[in-house]
């Protein structure tokens, strides 16, 4: 008997439902009962396959679609930021924001959950940003020794949370574009 | 009979315990039972006084000490940022981080809680930052029309969350100082 008796399609559906539930109720309030009800599974099946709530949520994160691999390369740093933002659709932005918001407390005390979030959601975005920045350095648009380079992921990830705390809303693409122009590019002294 | 039968000292103690519990278990997992146990009160007392969990937590936030009112005024923008960071002690930074982290999801769906957090924790910090920036404009250190001005609170609040998501730790004062020098001051084109 194989470990999994779920088809890949059914599994993908289940993982999506888990992440939806996390966004709706928060990680702490998520119960295996709610997952079972939402996905029309038995709790026995859930526990047999994933053993615990943290393992189920971490696995759901690992299997999520993740950010699109469409690397941008427009020939300028400003152009690359614009293109990255243009790829972002409002619905995905809302989904990612909700997920980060729902997990930021839980990951702090749950290393497995943190690793899953880091690997699946944060690291790919960070890598995409670093590629864009490295190319700007190669083109001579920004200095290799500019100390703001290491903080580009912080400037952009932080914005998601800051806008929610300060203005109680999700940042729009327009807002992020203004922030990139007013803060990120000047800090990098982009020429 | 007065509405409150708790002394102000007892109330302050209770509010502090509520915020500690929020930081430990998260808002969603906080129960009135846990508050009653931690504060050695009866649940009946808690409900009689505060009616509901959101009301109790919002009131606890409202009554919290809030950030120190020590306005800094060193004569330069860099000096003011340095002085603000020097006032921050590591323990308070950890406490504030834990509170923001614990509440960021809950406030999104609970307007009363958001208002309490905004009024008590966010607005005073934002006001202190704006005072520092306005003085730098008056001194001619930064241009009144610099578009990064409006984003100073975002750059700094966001950093709390970004460091936790990207590096799984609380930002240190040293880290924040490097960020101010590398990002905030250059974005403001401080002279």
Explain what the structure shows.
2 copies of one chain form a homodimer. With 191 residues, chain A is mostly helical. Chain A folds into 2 domains: 8-63, Orthogonal Bundle (Arc Repressor Mutant, subunit A); 77-187, Tetracycline Repressor, domain 2 (Orthogonal Bundle). Chain A is 71% helix and 0% strand. The first copy, chain A, contains 9 helices and no strands. Chain A has helices at 8-25, 32-39, 43-50, 53-63, 77-87, 90-109, 111-138, 152-167, 173-187. In chain A, helix 1 (8-25) crosses helix 4 (53-63). The first copy, chain A, is elongated. The relative contact order of chain A is 0.11. At the A-B interface, helix 6, helix 7, helix 8 and helix 9 of A face helix 6, helix 7, helix 8 and helix 9 of B.
Give the CA-based shape of chain A.
elongated
Strand content of chain A: under 5%
The CATH C-level class name of the largest domain in chain A: Mainly Alpha
CATH architecture of the largest domain in chain A: Orthogonal Bundle
Number of helices of chain A: 9
How many independent structural domains of chain A? 2
State the order of secondary-structure elements of chain A, H for helix, E for strand: HHHHHHHHH
């Amino acid at each position: 008997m194989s470990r999994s008796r779920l088809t890949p399609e059914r599994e993908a559906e289940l993982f999506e439902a888990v992440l939806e539930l996390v966004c709706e109720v928060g990680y702490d309030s998520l119960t295996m009962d709610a997952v079972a009800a939402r996905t029309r599974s038995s709790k026995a099946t859930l526990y047999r396959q994933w053993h615990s709530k943290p393992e189920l949520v971490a696995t759901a994160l690992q299997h999520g679609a993740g950010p699109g691999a469409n690397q941008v390369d427009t020939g300028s740093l400003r152009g690359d930021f614009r293109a990255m933002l243009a790829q972002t659709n409002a619905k995905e932005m809302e989904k990612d924001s909700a997920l980060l918001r729902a997990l930021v407390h839980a990951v702090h005390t749950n290393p497995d959950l943190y690793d899953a979030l880091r690997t699946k959601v944060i690291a790919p975005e960070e890598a995409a940003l670093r590629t864009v920045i490295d190319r700007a350095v190669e083109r001579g648009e920004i200095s290799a020794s500019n100390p703001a380079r290491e903080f580009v992921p912080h400037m952009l990830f932080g914005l998601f949370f800051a806008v929610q705390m300060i203005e109680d809303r999700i940042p729009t693409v327009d807002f992020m574009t203004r922030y990139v122009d007013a803060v990120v590019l000047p800090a990098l002294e982009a020429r």
